[in-house]
Amino acid sequence: MKKVIIIDGGPRKVFNTASMLQKFAEGARSAGNGVEVKIVRLYDIAYRGCMSCMACKVKGKASNVCKYKDALTPVLEEIAQADGLVLGSPIYFGDVTGQMRTFLERLAFPWLSYNDYSMTAPKRMPVVLIETMNGTPERNNSQGYGSMEYCITAALGEPERLTAYNTYQVKNYDRYELAGFSEEAKRQWRDEHWEQDLQKAFEAGKRMAEKIG
């Protein structure tokens, strides 16, 4: 059976990033071709970033899957055998969350050869990168997945990108010190764009499932 692994790098279980990823999963399952879809929440796993143990580079034992053992190990091993990968993260300070970044270190460092600087994953597969952010298309400081996007592209293939802009930060703005944001403007943007963003995620999931199925 073909499998899509969805990595949720956001802290909230039911807000913007989680909603986009859930819609992607629904779209993939709607294809009806038996593709298995699994969502992994990084904030539910106790793990570390790359430990620089260099175990993946030992002569005669080199591996393109991280060899450091902790709760992330089975996830990385499952991705190595998967047929599609989805990464989702809110944008904090212009970057993905710390959990997503440390996950990507563990995922990508074993791909890197220090012999010729090539990037080789266990297998190539379609990838979708999903971002949610407070910024607008015209005004944001997002670096997205940054240098890790180069690693993903080199090892897995050119990713598809989906971005949900100007997302709600909280449900009730009156409770928080958020005067720099207009809730009215946020609500108007959400009314005009949010359902479209979710639909785009649904359609992307369906496309991936149809492609690999």
Keywords:
213 residues; single chain; 5-stranded parallel beta sheet; 5 helices; 35% helix; alpha/beta; globular
Quick overview:
With 213 residues, the chain is of the alpha/beta class.
Textual characterization of the structure:
The protein is α/β, with parallel strands linked by helices. It is globular and about 60 Å long. The chain has a 5-stranded parallel sheet with strand order 2-1-3-4-5, with helices on both faces. It has helices at 16-30, 73-81, 98-108, 147-156, 183-212, and strands at residues 3-8, 36-41, 84-90, 127-132, 160-164. The chain has 5 helices and 5 strands, in the order βαβαβαβαβα.
Shape from CA axes? globular
| Assembly annotation | single chain
Major sheet details = 5 strands, parallel
Main sheet strand line-up:
2-1-3-4-5
- Pattern of helices and strands: EHEHEHEHEH
**Share of residues in helices:** 25-40%
Proportion of residues in β-strands: 5-15%
Summing up helix and strand content along with how strands pair, one would put the structural category as alpha/beta
Distance N terminus to C terminus? 9 Å
Q: Calculate the mean pLDDT score and round it.
A: 96
Low-confidence stretches: none
Query: How many helical elements?
Result: 5
Using only C-alpha atoms, the radius of gyration works out to: 18 Å
**Total strand segments:** 5
